[in-house]
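BUG: 3D viewer hangs when loading the predicted structure for this chain

Environment: internal workstation, default settings.
Expected: structure renders.
Actual: progress bar stalls at 90%.

Input used:
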Amino acid sequence: METSRSFTLIELLVVIAIIALLMAILIPALSRAREQGKRAACLHNLRGLVLAWLMYADDNDGHLVRGQAGGNGWVKGLGTLPNERPIEEQLDAIRDGLLFTYTKMTKLYRCPVAEWDEMRTYSTVHSMNGLEFTGSGEVYKRLPEIGRPGARLAFLDDYGEDWDACWAVWYTEPSWWNPIPMRHHKGTTLAFADGHCDWWGWRDQRTIDYGNEPWAVSESGAGIDKNQPGNVDLMKLQRAAWGRLGYEP
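Structure tokens produced before the viewer hung:
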């Protein structure tokens, strides 16, 4: 006569320990894979935007689309805190922009991990036919004027609160102007003036701390000090935005 054999308590504990170990190994890997998928979707959107940006210049004798949001900008302006406007109004601002003729898809203007009510989270940079301001570098009006376009920033993942859809950073001092969000695992997705896109991971803890603050806090400078001498991330972005540093590092 056969007898059934039950698991002992020790055997059950061993099985549970093995399952826990496997979960500890698999969950971070699954999390990384999920993040890489979201990052790839974000880069796909940026690639569509920068190609539209290049096509606009090609159709307009090399002239760049206006970098700031406005009646004749790459997107229409909505005033302060555009992300708080009704969603359809935000979408109309995209459709009324000069690049929509080349994109025809509003989803290209938004990072897939942005807040549900943010319809535009990408911005141009002020050096690309934006506004010349105190502390800025050279602002380009035409594509042929840009030296080394593969190293020059055209778009980046930004906050929906950025009212003019044009990201700024100081040229003349080691300081942030606008913050950058940390949507993609301590890094930011970017598009360059030659049409390629990339993800840059940040190395300086000050960059990460600054990017993890609420937008209103980081924009106002009420939290982390915006002046960050020696921040390699800041200098890397300043060179990408302006072509070089306007101060001695």
